[in-house]
Every structure is written in structure tokens, then in C-alpha cells.
């Protein structure tokens, strides 16, 4: 192993020609011959000076250097050239008379030239110290030194050349990394390639190195931004891109059914680029990113926001120092355990969560950190060859390399036996293989250059041809290293498998591997979860459909069925006794229509209680239509029949007398019911076609679970039948029904004390209309208010329907049933037969009696007025002491008036047909 470190910008000091820095004293006649060892040292110094001079001349032979620096270097080069010529003149003068010394001089020059030509120099930028970032150079630099020793020990590589590494510390800071790069380039010897680590430093170095045609090989950089070939045309890396983790994360999320994640990232370019790529993958696979939190140094606020957003599956992207701060905040906010899953980066050390806690000011103990870290998942590209018995290109297995690396780290002072590994231990194989990739690429380039008579020593920072040859050699490199198969994609990225691990019992356990290119997940079924089950990706929200209480629905259904049976029984009763006068004068057909309407209303009440418990969502729109049609049609039939009766009574009281004598045909009584039904059909048909009722779900706020489970919340849902313009259609329907109710109420009030023989239950019909109107006016607005309370709304509406129907049936039919029970037979009705002409004859007789009664009342009024006048005259005559003739006249007048009254009375009595006719007349006056 050969290693040089030239980082100083100051030119080397010139070697002295004699002791004390002065020239030796010469005799007057002949200069003394210098000793042999002094001359050799002098020639050796001259060779070094020449190398430095030529190197400086070559290193600064490019157009992109600052003018001031170019002038300074030019002056320095001239100085060394002049001084070298003087010294050569002295040497020639000393050896002109002695040819062996000339031969010795030539040999020394040959030795110096050979020494200069057999070294190939590369620059190394290793992050060794610093705060924050990745200090992976602590383990990667010893691995690179091991690789240099192994490469230089191989006689079949580089044709006798030696590979030298010139390195310095970048502290994972891009500014310092740029300074180290410039020191390596400005100081001799000339570098053929740069090794770099830490994504931020690699970004800066790779973006600038293209100006010098330098290849950059990164052993520890995962930033996805480095895959941009247009921005980094000369970059390769043995460390896979961080984006190789994202397909693996997506695969795991699909495997465990997680579709909702959160992202916590450190504000660094490598993690920003990784998150952007992860978001793209999530969008393609339909995974929701509920929140994306970032932080610079203090993650407390970001972690707190994760809890507020109910994040359960969290992808963390940050360096290991920040990871320890994050994990402590995770413990403080209780974002760990059976309800949470954390994805961390896999290239941290195995015990990263319990080291350097005091030095970094972490406020959590090691035990608390272990508790918070339990169960988290890591994804990392495979950095160690998984076949521990497979011999790699270096002749070692991965276990052999691990043993050698551990020995080197022990010598460096690391306590490997107690598992206190330096940072970058996981990436050490990548640094080892990076040096091998450089050696193999240089070897291939040398073979190609030899054909054209060139060598790598001809490389300059302006020689693009040799740079392109090196690029092609690296791009085509493929070998088996201690980190696995080393090959590069067209973007210069390492092609590698991804390893999945989980931490439990304070140890990482391999769960499987994922091949991104083949989309093949090899799963070992070793996962273990806190709580014994896969954590959910969110607080589990159980959608609970609010349905009508089953006991309430059963009770109301029983009442409705009883009402339907009662209505059917009354229909049978109405048909059986339709010939009886008590039924005939109540219009049995209208009563049958009313009872059928009540049955339909009872059915609509049952339909109101049928909900999602019994009906599938795709059939719910049919149920909504059934509810509307049943209730509207049933109401029109039941209420329309009663409305027709009260309308007829009102006509009898308002029509002119000749028209009232006309017979009312039955079909006219049903016209109004039919008209109401036609209007209902028209409105409901238009509603159904233009804007049908659909299932709409009302969602209520989350509720606490019935049992003590933090992962479950209840989201109540309630089904409604609504359309897009539901308020408009309800307004039309309510307006139409409201007008009918108000008009019926008005007619019932106007005829409240009227008795019509042809409608013997008009008063009961009026009472039924009152009840229907009052209940409808109360039920309609209250239902709109309590619509979100399914039990209350159903109970209120169904009870209103049941009460209206039962009350109407009771008021209209109970008196008839009682009358039939009391008088099983009706002889008068039987003697007249079952013809339809009996009722019109009685009606005509009743009208004649009413007319005769009115005439008699007018005659009585006339006679009483005449008697009053006569009595007044009699009083006046008595006061004047009238004679007897006058008194006789008055008496005759009184007799005449009396006889007239008696005649009228006799006529009235003689005009009545029978005693039964008299009773009938008295009952309807």
C-alpha cells in the first residue's frame, strides 16, 4: 500500500546544494570531486524538482483557471526551471572529466524518471468528522486503504503501475468538500479520478469535476439528484440511489394493506429528491400521503404534527444524528408501539439508537430509545455479499473482508468487540469495491490506450479523449465484489437488490429481499408486530349505519298490520251490509275507497321503517320511490274520500233549491278522488323521471368505540331519500297537499252543524278531517327537524299515520257497526227491497215536507201580525167606550182569524203521509 497526502497549496522548498544551504568551497586550480552520496542526493533532489515543475506546468495547462493564479504558477515554474538548469550545469562541470559519473548521473535520472512514471494518483474526499450529516469516512477510508493494498499487490493489474490515494476530510459539508477538491487538483501530482462520499459533497464535487474531465466515483451517496446524467455527466457510484428504496417501501405497503402514509424528512437535497420520487410512486399506486413534514435541526414540531394528523405509517428520511433526535421525540409523543410503523434508512449502524446520546444532547435514555425503536422497518440496498462463502474478485469472501476490516478498525482504536462500530461501517464494502472498480477501469483503459501508443500518464485535465475512455471503462465495469455484483446503470447508479429488516429484541432481523428490476419480493415470514397484529395505517373508522330500532320497528309493524286487518274487516262489513240504510246513506263506495287508502298508508308506515338493515344500497332508490308513492297515493285515497263527502254536504247547503232536488249521481262523487290521484301521479312521475330519489348518506362526527381500543372509532351514518332538487319537489308536494288540507278544513268548518239525510256521517267526517289536518300540520315540520334521529323520526311519522287512520276508521264505522249490532234487521228497508230508488223517494218526500213547513211558518207569521193589529185596535176602542156594533165587528174579525188558523192547521196535519214521515222530518230539521 502506498499513500500520499499533498494538500498544501504552498510550493515545496528547494533542496540545498550543500551543508548549511551554501555551495562547497572550491580550490583555485581544480574543484574537488563531490562525494558519491552527496551527488546522488543532489540528483534525487533535482528529479523531484523536475517532477514538481513539470507537474505544476501540466496541472495548470487549462483555460478555466483564474488569471491571477495562472501568473503566480508561471512565475513559480520559471523559477524552478532556471534553478534546475544551474544545478545541472554544476553537475556537468563536476563530472566532465570522469565518464563514470556521467553514467551515474544518467542512471539517477533514469531512476527518477521511472519513479515518476509508475504512480497513478487518485483523489479521495472522506467525511471523517463534523456535526450532523454522514461521517461514513470513519469506516470507508480504512476499507479503501485495504483495497489499495490488495490492488497494488496484484501483478496482473495496471501493468506495474501503483495506485496512490491523496485524501482529506470534508466533514460532509459541501463547501469544505469543494475546498478539498480544489486542493487536490491544484496540488501535484495530477489526479486521474476522484473518490467522494456524502451526498451533499458528491453533488458539489461531481457538478464541478466535469470542468476538468475528471470521473467521480461516489462510495457513499444515495441522493436521487445524482442520477441526472445531464447535470452529472462524469459521476458513478457504488452506493445505490435512495430511490431504490421507494419501490421496496411501496411493495411493503401493498403487502400489509397500508394505503395512507406520512413522511418525515430532513431538509437536505438527498431526502427532498427521495421524497419527490416516493410521492410519484405513491400517486401511481393510489397510496395517500396524509402529511409531509420537514425539519432542519429540531424535529419536535414536525413529530407533534404527525400525531395531530393521525399518522400511523411513517417514512423517516434523515441522517443518523437527526434520527436519534427524531426517535427521542417519538418516545415523548408516544408515536410507537402496536399502532405505529416507522420506516427508517437501513444504512445506520445496528446500534445507532443507543449510541452518542450524551454527546449529542439527546434527552432520552438508552432504554427509552430502545423502546421507541422496537418494531421499526428498514430498507437498504445490499452492501454485503449475501453468499458468505463466495470468493470475490479480490480472492476474499465477504466474511474474510469483514475480518480484515474489523482488525483495521481495532488498530484505529474502535471497540469492535463491544459492537461499537464507526459510522459508515455498513458502506465500507462499497468503498472497497469502489477502489477495485477504479483499478479495473484504469486497467481496461491502459490496454485500449496502448494500442494507440498512449498511456494514462498522458492524461491532462483538458484531454477529453482519455477521459471518455475512462468513462467507457467504468460504465462497462462488472465484477463480483464484497458488496455483491458491481455494475452501473446508464445513469451511473449501482444496480443492487434491496434488503428489508425489522428491529425486535434489540436486533435487526432480515425479513426479505426485493428485486426492483424483476419486481420480485422474497419474503421470509419472520415479521413480528407489537400487539400481535399488523398495525393499521390510520385510526380504524368503522362506518356504522344507524337503523331504526328493531323493537320499535316491530311494534309499529304490528300496529300497521293490525290496522290493515281492521280495514279489510271493515271493507267486508261495508260490502255485506251495503243494502242497509245506515250504510247506504254513508256512501259505501266512498268508504271502501277510504279504507283502501288507509291500508296503503299503513303500508307506507312500514316502508318508512325499512332501511339499510334489510335493503342493499343499490336497491335503496327503489325503496325511496315506494315510500313516496305509497304515502302520497294512500293519503289522496283516504283523505279524498272524506273530502268528497264534506264537499257534497257543502253543496247541499249552498245550491239553489231547484238544483238541490236533483239526484246526485255516484260517479260524480268519485271524480274528486280521481282528480287528486291524477295530480299525485303527475307530480310523482315528473319527480321520478327528472330528479329521482336516491340514497344519500348523512355522516356524523366520530364517536368513541364501545370497547377500549385506540385504533377504532365509530363513524355513524344515516340513510336518507333525497334528490338533487329535493327541496323544490317537497315544496310542490307539500304545497299541493296543504291546499287540499286547508280547503277540506274550511268545508268541514262550514258544514259543522249541517245534517244531510243522504250523508248521515257528515259530522264524523268533519271530525276526521280536523284530526288529519292538525296531525299533518304538526308532523311535517317536526319531521324535518328530527330527520337526523332515525328512531324519533320514524316513531313520530308512523304514529301520526297510524293514529289518523285508526281515528278516521273509528269515527266513520264504529257508529255503523253499533247500529247494525243493535238492529240486526231493518223491516222497512227490507219491504222496499234492494232497489236503488228507495233513497231518492225518501229524499223527495223530505224536500216536500220542508217546503210545506216553510209555507206554514209564513202563514202563521201573517196571522200573528194581524192578531197583533186587532188587539191594538181593541184596546183603543175600549178606551174610547165604543158602541156594541163596533164590538161585534171586532169579534167577527177575531172569529175569522181563528177560523183561518184552524184551517191551516188542519191542512198541515192532513198533508203528512204517516207517523214515520213525521219522525223523519223532525230528525232532519
From TrEMBL:
Residue ranges crossing the lipid bilayer per the database entry: 550-576, 588-608, 628-648, 669-689, 727-749, 769-787, 793-814
Top-level taxon: Eukaryota
Coiled coil location: 839-880
Topology of the protein relative to the lipid bilayer: Multi-pass membrane protein
Gene Ontology annotations of biological process type: gamma-aminobutyric acid signaling pathway
UniProtKB keywords: Coiled coil, G-protein coupled receptor, Glycoprotein, Membrane, Receptor, Transducer, Transmembrane, Transmembrane helix
Stored Pfam families: 7tm_3, ANF_receptor
One of the record's GO cellular component terms: G protein-coupled receptor heterodimeric complex
Location of this chain's protein in the cell: Membrane
Gene Ontology MF term list: G protein-coupled GABA receptor activity
G-protein coupled receptors family 3 profile domain ranges (all copies): 624-836
Disordered, as annotated region: 1-36, 905-925
Gene3D superfamilies: 3.40.50.2300
Predominant place of localization: membrane
Feature: compositional bias, Polar residues: 905-914
Protein known as: G-protein coupled receptors family 3 profile domain-containing protein
Amino acid at each position: 500500500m502506498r499513500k500520499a497526502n499533498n494538500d498544501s497549496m504552498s510550493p515545496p522548498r528547494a533542496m540545498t546544494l550543500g551543508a548549511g544551504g551554501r555551495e562547497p568551497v572550491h580550490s583555485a586550480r581544480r574543484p574537488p570531486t563531490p562525494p558519491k552520496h552527496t551527488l546522488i542526493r543532489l540528483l534525487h533532489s533535482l528529479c523531484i524538482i523536475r517532477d514538481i515543475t513539470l507537474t505544476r506546468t501540466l496541472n495548470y495547462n487549462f483555460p478555466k483557471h483564474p488569471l491571477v493564479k495562472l501568473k503566480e504558477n508561471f512565475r513559480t515554474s520559471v523559477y524552478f526551471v532556471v534553478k534546475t538548469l544551474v544545478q545541472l550545469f554544476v553537475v556537468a562541470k563536476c563530472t566532465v572529466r570522469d565518464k563514470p559519473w556521467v553514467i551515474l548521473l544518467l542512471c539517477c535520472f533514469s531512476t527518477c524518471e521511472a519513479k515518476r512514471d509508475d504512480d497513478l494518483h487518485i483523489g479521495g474526499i472522506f467525511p471523517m468528522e463534523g456535526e450532523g450529516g454522514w461521517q461514513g469516512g470513519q469506516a470507508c477510508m480504512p476499507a479503501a486503504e485495504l483495497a489499495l493494498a490488495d490492488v497494488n499487490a496484484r501483478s496482473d493489474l495496471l501493468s506495474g503501475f501503483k495506485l496512490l490515494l491523496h485524501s482529506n476530510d470534508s466533514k460532509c459539508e459541501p463547501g469544505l468538500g469543494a475546498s478539498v477538491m480544489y486542493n487536490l487538483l491544484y496540488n501535484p501530482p495530477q489526479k486521474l479520478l476522484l473518490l467522494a462520499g456524502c451526498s451533499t459533497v458528491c453533488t458539489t464535487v461531481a457538478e464541478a469535476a466535469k470542468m476538468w474531465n475528471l470521473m467521480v466515483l461516489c462510495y457513499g451517496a444515495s441522493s436521487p439528484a445524482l442520477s441526472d446524467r445531464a447535470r452529472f455527466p462524469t459521476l458513478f457510484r457504488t452506493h445505490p440511489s435512495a430511490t431504490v428504496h421507494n419501490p421496496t417501501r411501496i411493495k411493503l405497503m401493498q403487502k400489509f394493506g397500508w394505503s395512507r402514509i406520512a413522511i418525515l424528512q430532513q431538509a437536505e437535497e438527498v431526502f427532498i429528491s427521495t421524497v419527490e420520487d416516493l410521492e410519484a410512486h405513491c400517486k401511481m399506486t393510489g397510496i395517500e400521503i396524509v402529511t409531509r413534514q420537514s425539519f432542519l435541526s429540531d424535529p419536535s414540531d414536525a413529530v407533534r404534527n404527525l400525531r395531530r394528523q393521525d399518522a400511523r405509517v411513517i417514512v423517516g428520511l434523515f441522517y443518523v444524528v437527526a434520527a436519534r433526535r427524531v426517535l427521542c421525540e417519538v418516545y415523548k409523543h408516544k408515536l410507537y408501539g402496536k399502532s405505529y410503523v416507522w420506516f427508517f434508512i437501513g444504512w445506520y449502524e445496528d446500534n445507532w439508537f443507543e449510541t452518542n446520546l450524551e454527546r449529542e444532547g439527546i434527552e432520552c435514555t438508552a432504554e427509552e430509545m430502545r423502546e421507541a425503536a422496537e418494531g421499526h422497518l428498514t430498507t437498504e440496498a445490499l452492501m454485503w455479499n449475501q453468499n458468505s462463502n463466495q470468493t470475490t474478485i479480490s480472492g476474499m469472501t465477504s466474511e474474510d473482508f469483514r475480518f480484515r476490516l474489523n482488525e483495521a478498525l481495532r488498530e484505529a482504536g474502535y471497540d469492535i468487540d463491544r459492537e461499537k462500530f464507526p459510522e459508515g461501517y455498513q458502506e465500507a464494502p462499497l468503498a472497497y469495491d469502489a477502489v477495485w472498480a477504479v483499478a479495473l477501469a484504469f486497467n481496461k483503459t491502459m490496454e485500449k490506450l496502448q494500442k494507440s501508443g498512449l498511456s494514462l500518464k498522458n492524461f491532462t485535465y483538458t484531454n477529453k479523449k482519455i477521459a471518455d475512455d475512462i468513462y467507457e471503462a467504468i460504465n462497462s465495469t462488472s465484477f463480483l465484489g464484497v458488496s455483491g455484483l458491481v455494475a452501473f446503470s446508464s445513469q451511473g447508479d449501482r444496480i443492487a437488490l434491496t434488503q428489508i429488516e425489522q428491529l425486535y429484541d434489540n436486533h435487526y432481523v432480515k425479513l426479505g429481499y426485493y428485486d426492483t428490476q424483476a419486481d420480485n419480493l422474497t419474503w421470509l415470514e419472520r415479521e413480528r408486530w407489537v400487539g400481535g397484529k399488523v398495525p393499521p395505517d390510520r385510526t380504524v373508522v368503522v362506518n356504522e349505519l344507524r337503523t331504526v330500532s328493531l323493537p320499535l320497528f316491530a311494534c309499529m309493524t304490528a300496529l300497521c298490520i293490525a290496522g290493515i286487518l281492521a280495514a279489510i274487516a271493515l271493507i267486508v262489513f261495508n260490502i255485506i251490509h251495503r243494502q242497509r240504510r245506515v250504510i247506504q246513506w254513508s256512501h259505501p263506495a266512498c268508504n271502501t275507497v277510504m279504507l283502501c287508502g288507509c291500508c296503503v298508508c299503513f303500508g307506507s308506515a312500514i316502508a318508512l321503517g325499512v332501511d339499510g338493515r334489510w335493503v342493499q344500497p343499490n336497491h335503496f332508490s327503489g325503496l325511496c320511490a315506494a315510500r313516496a308513492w305509497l304515502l302520497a297515493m294512500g293519503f289522496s285515497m283516504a283523505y279524498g274520500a272524506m273530502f268528497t263527502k264534506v264537499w257534497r254536504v257543502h253543496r247541499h247547503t249552498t245550491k239553489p233549491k231547484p238544483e238541490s232536488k236533483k239526484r246526485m249521481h255516484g260517479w260524480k262523487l268519485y271524480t274528486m278522488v280521481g282528480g287528486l290521484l291524477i295530480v299525485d301521479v303527475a307530480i310523482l312521475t315528473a319527480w321520478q323521471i327528472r330528479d329521482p330519489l336516491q340514497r344519500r348518506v348523512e355522516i356524523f362526527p366520530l364517536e368513541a368505540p364501545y370497547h377500549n381500543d385506540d385504533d377504532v372509532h365509530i363513524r355513524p351514518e344515516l340513510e336518507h331519500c333525497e334528490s338533487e332538487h329535493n327541496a323544490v319537489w317537497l315544496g310542490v308536494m307539500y304545497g299541493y297537499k296543504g291546499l287540499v288540507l286547508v280547503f277540506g278544513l274550511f268545508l268541514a268548518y262550514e258544514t259543522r252543524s249541517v245534517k244531510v239525510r243522504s250523508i248521515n256521517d257528515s259530522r264524523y267526517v268533519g271530525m276526521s278531517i280536523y284530526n288529519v289536518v292538525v296531525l299533518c300540520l304538526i308532523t311535517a315540520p317536526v319531521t324535518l327537524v328530527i330527520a337526523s334521529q332515525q328512531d324519533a323520526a320514524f316513531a313520530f311519522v308512523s304514529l301520526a299515520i297510524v293514529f289518523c287512520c285508526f281515528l278516521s276508521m273509528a269515527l266513520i264505522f264504529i257508529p255503523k257497526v253499533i247500529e247494525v249490532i243493535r238492529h240486526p234487521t231493518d223491516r222497512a228497508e227490507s219491504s222496499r227491497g234492494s232497489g236503488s230508488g228507495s233513497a231518492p223517494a225518501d229524499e223527495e218526500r223530505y224536500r216536500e215536507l220542508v217546503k210545506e213547513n216553510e209555507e206554514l211558518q209564513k202563514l202563521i207569521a201573517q196571522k200573528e201580525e194581524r192578531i197583533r193589529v186587532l188587539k191594538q185596535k181593541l184596546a183603543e176602542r175600549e178606551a174610547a167606550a165604543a158602541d156594541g156594533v163596533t164590538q161585534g165587528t171586532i169579534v167577527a174579525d177575531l172569529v175569522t182569524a181563528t177560523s183561518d188558523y184552524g184551517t191551516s192547521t188542519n191542512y198541515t196535519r192532513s198533508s203528512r203521509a204517516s207517523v214515520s214521515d213525521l219522525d223523519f222530518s223532525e230528525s232532519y230539521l
